[in-house]
Amino acid sequence: MPKPNQKQIADQLELSRTTVSRCFTNHPKINPETRSKVFQLAAELGYSYSIQRNAHAKTDSTRNTIAIIVGIEKSATQSKEPAAEILNGISEKAAAEGLEIEIHYVDPSKFLPSSRSRRIIKGVSCLHWKGVVLVYDFQEEAVSNIMAKFPTVSALEDYDDVDVDCIGQDQVRGISRIMQHLHELGHRRIGFLSWKYPVHTPWVERRLGAYVENIYRLGLELDTDLILNLKPDEQTPLDELAAQVAERANQGVSAWVCAADHQAYHLIDQLKTHGINVPEDCSVTGYDGQPPTEGTQQVTTIRMPFKDIGISCISSLLRKMKHPVASRRNLQVSGELLIGSTTAAPLQRAIA
To answer: Which of 27, 63, 106, 226 reaches 20 to 30 Å from 236, CA-CA?
Structure first.
């Protein structure tokens, strides 16, 4: 198979070769969104490019490249849409600050750079890196080892035992808005579910915690039978997970909060095979603001300003570079409730 090149990138994105070339040289007239799309596709295709250097050797003070490491494996089932928006924000802010960026996709379950090795990603030189932004979830040891080498910021994930600066989401406020919406519609039996992923995902646990908090806040009964696939030893196949939801829907559980939009869209589709229609028989919500595919219902969700998160990542990283021993920061960004067509008042039998 021939190696990917700039012409292939240009053809797939319907851009000129000149535009693609200018993206890699950080040309000031290139639209940040276009630059982000070019870098994303280059990373997905495995295209490697040489960072433009001046005639002098790079020193710590003249390094000018921010590495963006995205924790999505090639066969990922979750959407890349949030990452795309984050990368748009990163690209825009980096260009404004005169910084270059590299984007690398890695399998988070296999990505574990050594604390001593000078190389972070196999086959990729990091001598010109100035800092690192991590997008999505990684093993905590991997995060710690990268932090030992470069100023590092995490986009979206606030790790339990690693003191990395994080630009994340206000999970409590987001889930509170979803639960309040369902409660106002008349739902009283509301479940929570999530998928399992290759690495530990604290964001799922935080959304679960917010769900439990709101169960008590709204005066509802906490029923652990309505919390699916959250225990450490649970690895429920997705078709079985949908079957469990359908069974409980027939028993009067009228609404389900999914930990993310891609989970919600998949569940809605699977429920049809069990004769459960959304929202007539059961309401379903997601989280993130992922747009539906053609012919799919818009899920009720929390729409996150991912581009703003990307912009804030570069601002936070610049702060870390200037003040490497400054105290850790955890910036939480709020989203807005987007009411789609997957929530409605419950059937009377579900209220009883």
So the answer is: 106
Range with the poorest average pLDDT among 43-57, 116-130, 194-208, 325-339: 43-57
Q: Which CATH architecture has domain 6-169+307-334?
A: 3-Layer(aba) Sandwich (3.40)
Question: What pTM, to 2 d.p., does this model score?
Answer: 0.82
* Nearest Cα residue to 256 out of 301, 218, 296: 301
* Contact predicate 213/172, CB 8 Å: yes
* Owner of token pair 């009883």: 352
Residue 235: CB atoms within 10 A of its CB come to 9
* The two three-digit tokens of residue 161, written as one number: 């035992």
66-78 pLDDT, tens per residue?
999 999 875 554 4
Alpha helices, H only, 153-257: 171-185, 202-217, 238-250
For 281, residues 6+ apart whose C-beta sits below 8 A from its C-beta are 249, 271, 347
CATH dotted code for 171-303+337-351: 3.40.50.2300
Residue among 154, 205, 169 nearest 287 (CA): 169
The residue assigned the tokens 């003191």 is: 163
Task: Band the pLDDT of 1: cuts 50, 70, 90.
Answer: low
* 95 and 26 Cβ atoms separated by less than 8 Å: yes
Q: What's the CA gap between 138 and 72, in Å, rounded? A: 10
- Scan for tokens 């105290």, then name that residue: 327
Residues 6+ positions from 269 with CB-CB distance below 8 Å: 296
